[in-house]
Write a structure and sequence with these properties.
Helices cover about 30% and strands about 30% of the residues. It is of the alpha+beta class and about 230 residues long.
Length: about 230
């Protein structure tokens, strides 16, 4: 009896590389997408910060707050006491809204105008925060008036800026507050996420990402001129 030779199974070896290429790229691409997205996000954020920095350098204006407040240093008897801050309720009557402990580093601040009758809104600021806002510390235990020295850089949002920032419709764009010049250098490596801000065509925005209404800007700030060239 003659034995028939066994046939070896036919395998498409020449097509295996092709099948592997067709099958495995989906895993490769999926595993690399988070890294690519993170890199693109970092580049996008840095580009946004660069666009904002250049826009403020070229077109920003300086405005100074017209804030005037009464302030005094705390007395020895004040230290350790609680300062109650009053506001107005729906009926227009003064009600306590918060309280803070007076410490050695405190500055007691009072609004210029009373809430009602002889009731004023008083609150505390640290001496550092007060000095940054008003430029000098109170030196008496009685209230005296002080003019704010705080200046802000204000930029008008125009169509060219929206386009440079990647606005999808040319009318609005959403940005990270951390991309604005006042925050970018100190927060680019920080883990804390700052909130976002939505800019609209015609908005006035500060270098800290704060949108200021035109009426508020004109009523509470004084125009100081264009930003000096560096």
């Amino acid at each position: 009896m003659t034995k028939k030779p066994r046939r070896r199974p036919f395998v498409m070896l020449n097509r295996l590389p092709l099948l592997a290429v067709l099958f495995f790229p989906c895993f490769t691409a999926a595993s690399s997408e988070p890294g690519i997205a993170a890199a693109q996000g970092a580049v996008s954020s840095r580009n946004t910060a660069s666009v904002l920095a250049e826009a403020f350098e070229q077109s920003a204006q300086l405005w100074r707050r017209d804030a005037i407040a009464y302030a005094r240093l705390p007395s020895r008897d004040d230290i350790g006491q609680m300062l109650i801050t009053y506001g107005l309720d729906a009926a227009g009557k003064p009600v306590p809204v918060s309280q803070q402990e007076i410490v050695q580093d405190s500055v007691v601040v009072r609004d210029m105008q009373p809430l009602v009758g002889a009731v004023y809104r008083e609150y505390l600021m640290t001496q550092t925060a007060w000095f940054e806002e008003y430029g000098m510390l109170p030196d008496t235990l009685s209230f005296h008036s002080y003019q704010s020295l705080r200046q802000v850089q204000v930029l008008t949002v125009d169509a060219q800026l929206l386009s440079a920032l990647g606005s999808p419709d040319g009318k609005t764009v959403e940005l990270k507050t951390s991309d604005f010049p006042a925050f970018f250098d100190e927060n680019q490596d920080a883990e804390t996420e700052l909130p976002t801000v939505t800019l609209m065509l015609g908005d006035r925005v500060t270098d800290a990402g704060e949108v200021i209404a035109i009426d508020t800007l004109q009523q509470r700030y004084s125009f100081q001129g264009d930003l000096p060239e560096v």
